[in-house]
Design brief:
11 helices; 249 residues; 37% helix; Rossmann fold; 11 strands; alpha/beta
Length: 249
C-alpha cells in the first residue's frame, strides 16, 4: 500500500471523516492478498519505499494480468520485468493504462506522480549496444524510484576513447551502474577512474567462452578496482534498485 494513502487514511480517522470500521476494512488487505497462484505483498512499499515488482519471465499472460490488477488496487505504480512482445500483446488489452517498454522488456502502469528521491544522478553505462536491454531495465527501475538517470551507451574497452570523452560527466554521478558482457572489463576500468560506488552488471552477451555471462561475472567479481560491487547476470533490476537505495535522500 502507498504510504501516502496510509497517511491520508489515518488523518481521516483522526479528523473523524473516516470511521474506524472503514479504516479497518481498508487495512485488512494491507499485508498481502492471496489471489490463487500468487500472494501479493502489499506491505512492501511501506517497508522498503518501493512496491513489489513482478518478474514476468515464466508467468503466463493470465497470471500477469491478475497480479497487475491486484497491485493496481493500491494506487502504486506497477512494474513487470522480462516481458517479451508476444506476451505483452496479450496482457496490454486487459489492463487500462499499461504500457510496454520494449527497450527494457518491461510493462509499466503509472498511477502516481514520481517524487524526486535521489541526492544526485545515477549514470548507467554499457560496454556495447547489445547490453542496452539490461541497462534499460536498470534505468527504468531507477527512474520509477525517483532518480535522475544519465545513459552512456556503447563506450566499452574496445574503443576506450569513447568513455574518456564522457569522463567528466561520469565523475559527476553519485552512483554508476556498469553493464557489460564479453570479459566484463569495463567495470574495472570505470572503478579505477571515479570516486562513486560502482555497481557492475554482467550480461549474457558474448561468444562461446563467455559462457552465458559467467566469464563477465567472474571478471567483475575479481575486479582489482576498489568500490566495485556485482549483481547477478542480466540483473538490471537489481542494479537499478541498489543504485536507488545508495542515492536515496
Amino acid at each position: 500500500m502507498n504510504p501516502k494513502i496510509i497517511r491520508k487514511l489515518l488523518d481521516g480517522v483522526q479528523k473523524g471523516s473516516t470511521s474506524i470500521d472503514s479504516a479497518m476494512e481498508q487495512l485488512s488487505t494491507l499485508p498481502f492478498a492471496d489471489i490463487g497462484g500468487a500472494v501479493i505483498d502489499h506491505h512492501r512499499a511501506l517497508r522498503t519505499g518501493f512496491p513489489e515488482v513482478v518478474l514476468g519471465e515464466g508467468k503466463t499472460a493470465e497470471q500477469i494480468v491478475a497480479i497487475v490488477l491486484e497491485l493496481a488496487k493500491k494506487q502504486n505504480n506497477v512494474l513487470v520485468t522480462r516481458v517479451d512482445p508476444e506476451k505483452a500483446a496479450r496482457v496490454l488489452p486487459e489492463v487500462s493504462g499499461l504500457a510496454h517498454l520494449e527497450s527494457a522488456k518491461s510493462l509499466v502502469l503509472k498511477q502516481e506522480e514520481i517524487a524526486p528521491q535521489g541526492r544526485g544522478t545515477i549514470a548507467i553505462v554499457t560496454a556495447g549496444t547489445s547490453d542496452i536491454p539490461v541497462a534499460e531495465e536498470a534505468c527504468l527501475v531507477a527512474e520509477l524510484a525517483g532518480n535522475r538517470v544519465t545513459r552512456m551507451f556503447d563506450v566499452g574497452v574496445a574503443g576506450i576513447h569513447r568513455l574518456f570523452h564522457r569522463l567528466e560527466e561520469l565523475r559527476q554521478a553519485k552512483v554508476i551502474v556498469v553493464v557489460a558482457g564479453m570479459e566484463g572489463a569495463l567495470a574495472s576500468v570505470i572503478g579505477g577512474l571515479v570516486s562513486s560506488p560502482v555497481i557492475a552488471v554482467p550480461t549474457s552477451i558474448g561468444y562461446g567462452s563467455a559462457f552465458g555471462g559467467l566469464t563477465a561475472l567472474l571478471g567483475m567479481l575479481n575486479s582489482c578496482a576498489a568500490g566495485v560491487t556485482v549483481v547477478n547476470i542480466d540483473n538490471g533490476f537489481g542494479a537499478g534498485y541498489a543504485a536507488s537505495l545508495i542515492n536515496r535522500e
